[in-house]
Amino acid sequence: MIRQALRRGALIALVLVAMQGVAVAGDKEAMDAYKQGVASIEGGRYKEGIAQMESALQARGQEGSFRIGTVTFEYLPSRHIAAAWMGLGDAAKARQALDRAESVKGASRADKAAMAALRQRIDASNPAPAAATAAPATAPPAATAPVTKAPCPDVADASSALKSGDLARARRLAAGCLAGGEDEGARRVMAAVDAEMSGLLTRARREKASGDTAQAAATIAKVLEIDPANNDALDLRDQLPSAGATAPPRTTVAAGTAPRGASMTAPPAATAAVALEPGIRAFFEGNIAAAVASLEPRVESTTRPDMLTVYACALATQSLVEGDSGQADQLAAEAREAWKRAKALRPGLRLDPASFSPRVRELLGP
């Protein structure tokens, strides 16, 4: 009797193991297709990626995180299918896939950030019909409507760049609009790009933690293509085992003093003349000394608030780098004077947090 009971127990255990093996095998098939799909879509092979994601859903239809043994996998094919349809220019199908993805419970923070960015791109390319409805017949005459600030002319190009996946250009154009004043459209583009970078950084940290340093380095490189001065990406890159031997040197400007996204931030105006201004360009490329040297001879006679703003921020950055020296106090005073003149020329001018560091804004004042 004891032997029979033991044999029955062993058979039950074997059946359970076999059943578990079938489930794991199905999940492994889904993850293999899912990973191939991610690689295809990120490589621009959208149709191939959609087919691979659909194969993954056939193997495992339930989306969301799941475990194979002791390892937890993030699994959200619908999000990537939506991104692929956007890459193919079909916003309607992208919206449908994203609706499915957003209904999945327990999505990771990285997936949520990526979905928020994708929603921005879809809305920018194909706004809801309600947004285009005509004003009611009882609306006041146009002549009595309040005067509103005209949108930055680069916002349309920034939205198009976001739609096409050129995040570096989208960020540069949006930052240029924000540097010249508040613009809701530019802010939406900037938020979408920041969310995309946040998702990439989360993925890079996960790849680093799993020991896949080569893939982590590649993911970090994507962030730095968008924002070469992204401190989170630079810090993470420096933590990789081979970073010291292969990574290019980092900027010598003190941490927290340089403008956010310096090398990818456009000059603070939409005109071609400003875009070609060497001093302004040097500042937004992170070359503070060159910016001061180029702008200083002309700031006394200029009536351009954008030039004075950049000059003030460059001096403020130099002051912060100097620390507690007497030279720092002089630079800070000159920076505040230039900022005061810029605001006098353009009432309501302010430094946008998306483009200028908190320490520079604090030194210059409101």
CATH fold title of the largest domain: Serine Threonine Protein Phosphatase 5, Tetratricopeptide repeat
Count, helices: 17
* CATH homologous superfamily designation of the largest domain: Tetratricopeptide repeat domain
Label the overall shape: elongated
Just name the CATH architecture of the largest domain.
Alpha Horseshoe
Strand order of the largest sheet: 1-2
Mind describing the biggest β-sheet?
Answer: 2 strands, antiparallel
- Whole-number average pLDDT? 75
Structural class: mainly alpha
Low-confidence spans: 10-24, 128-137, 251-276
Order of helices and strands: HHEEHHHHHHHHHHHHHHH
Report the sheet-strand fraction. under 5%
Rg on CA atoms, Å? 26 Å
Total discrete domains:
3
Helix content: 55-70%
Determine the N-to-C terminus distance. Answer: 87 Å
Q: How many extended strands?
A: 2
Query: According to CATH, what is the class of the largest domain?
Result: Mainly Alpha
Your description of this structure?
Strands 1-2 form a two-stranded antiparallel sheet. The chain is built from 17 helices and 2 strands. By secondary structure, the chain is mainly α. The model is unreliable at 10-24, 128-137 and 251-276 (pLDDT under 50). Helix 5 packs across helix 6. It has 3 domains: 18-125, Alpha Horseshoe (Serine Threonine Protein Phosphatase 5, Tetratricopeptide repeat), CATH 1.25.40.10; 152-246, Serine Threonine Protein Phosphatase 5, Tetratricopeptide repeat (Alpha Horseshoe); 262-364. 65% of the residues lie in helices and 2% in strands. The chain is elongated and about 70 Å long.
Which features does this protein show?
Serine Threonine Protein Phosphatase 5, Tetratricopeptide repeat; mainly alpha; 65% helix; single chain; two-stranded antiparallel sheet; 17 helices; 366 residues; 3 domains
